Amino acid sequence: MQLTRPYLLFLGEATSFLDAKTAAGLRDWCPADVVGQYALPACSVDLGLPVLTPAEAAARGAGSLVIGVAPVGGAIPPAWWPTLFAALEAGLDLVSGMHTRLGDIPGLAAEAARRGRQLFDVRHAGRHFSAGTGQKRSGRRLLTVGMDCAIGKKYTALTLARDLAARGCAADFRATGQTGIMIAGRGVAIDAVVADFIAGAAEWLSPANAADHWDVVEGQGALFHPAYAGVTLGLIHGTQPDALVLCHDPLRATIDDYPHCPLPTLAEAMRQYLTAAHVTNAAARFVGISLDTSRLDAARRDALRRDWEAEFGLPVIDPVRDGAMRIVDVLLREFPCASN
Amino acid sequence: MQLTRPYLLFLGEATSFLDAKTAAGLRDWCPADVVGQYALPACSVDLGLPVLTPAEAAARGAGSLVIGVAPVGGAIPPAWWPTLFAALEAGLDLVSGMHTRLGDIPGLAAEAARRGRQLFDVRHAGRHFSAGTGQKRSGRRLLTVGMDCAIGKKYTALTLARDLAARGCAADFRATGQTGIMIAGRGVAIDAVVADFIAGAAEWLSPANAADHWDVVEGQGALFHPAYAGVTLGLIHGTQPDALVLCHDPLRATIDDYPHCPLPTLAEAMRQYLTAAHVTNAAARFVGISLDTSRLDAARRDALRRDWEAEFGLPVIDPVRDGAMRIVDVLLREFPCASN
Predict the structure, then answer these.
(1) Contacts of B232 in chain A (CB under 8 A)
(2) ipTM rounded to 2 decimals
């Protein structure tokens, strides 16, 4: 699957940045591949990109309109369909990370075929996976895990892969969600795999590698998420991580969109993640904590960092503010590279 | 989905009873719906049923040939295809619980259409599910959980549903695997659901019900199974069980087919199951332990039962030998019914 770049980011009727996290991730991680944004009138999110219609974006060289918002349930609302047809008419391909396939929208596949355009459903791997083996394989793996969905697991993994590479370590970002796949150009949307093959797909995603090579795997969901924890657990078992980083938003007290589901403490979350990880890697351990501190004042941020560093003996970072070098330091110390 | 009964059970080239557990389950739990067995020459399993060709079975009134064996990986081997065509020719429908669809076998769908016969893939629900809500719903739920796959979870659930009904409680067996669905005539093959919707499918399977009604839900996999634990965790979260029964084979020391994966202790397994169950039902608790003691002598069986009853304060049963009344006694005591 080779997506057609650069992208026009479609924001639909998003009213929060959480809804538009796919678009924001593309803006932050592959800005050279993004020409602008386009939204419906009800949208109140602005990514600060040039506002372009599909025709204007095509005139500036865009290759695809990317659906950059994730509505609850994963379906593409009929209100968005006219924009998708307009993009095809303007000569753009379409890229979607929804569970619903673009081809399920009445007439869209025929219109794309008529205009010689392509429909990319990055959430559908288009291949079958095997059951997990649980067999140890060579190479090192780090998995970001979280207190909830949409809490920095992808951002942290991208930052770690970048900072490991900057220190001379061989490292690959391994995408497990639609935005990550759009950024990396490859990966497996692990939440769209048939349930029996979650761990097997995770094994396939990070194959055997050189002994000091790092796969930095994007985590999904949370072990205590009432809807998605099965995805999380299979991803942990198949990844067999040597190292884990816990991602958190200190202002999040309950699961997003599930106000009846409180979050556990960080210590309890770590305990559950280690129990799960030890099933396929007895040496799995935490190497850091990654926080979204964007809505905290400096005093609160510093206090939290100090308290949790003391409690857990691990570096506490905000990857947006600080990068991930302090966690890379731990990795280099505990897992020496031949080249360092 | 209404399957055409009675069944002719096809055993393929099975060489162990574990391979033929689907066929054995149908023989044990709906014997009036089974007319006979049929196998290829390499098969060494005998269920003690009349041996009938598809044509002979059709002459005795059979409605379907059921694939009663589960090969590793879930694919239907080409060596079996001639039998499937012969069954259609004899006038039988086909029923399969494989991941591979019957319609993927070259020419089979066309042959079925030509003869006016139906292909039933019970592992494929043919419907979409929503994400889990984690919202509490009325009615009571018991889930069987296990130390491994193929360790008595379905058998225990069927026995509990039967024994609850015998004591005057409203109770339904809720099938989550292919054999259970063939026995019950309905259900969801939870391991074939898209990973994001495991918990949602489990919520759909046991909907809100009368306050003292029991859904007895068939468990799947194990929380510490390196391939299938994601299915197990999503099923627990979606079922929101009030009561759990732990199923075990005392001679099983490692995960079946995964000799590098040792089983935890029963106490550790219970701790992990309760941690998972408490995410969506803080009152979840164990009410019994169900053992397969078929390969133990009487002294060993009695000693294990005595030791584990003392350690856990729960009834320890073998559902094949003893039924499940001692666990039903616990349920009636701890969850009084209006009618008892």
Answers:
(1) 230
(2) 0.89
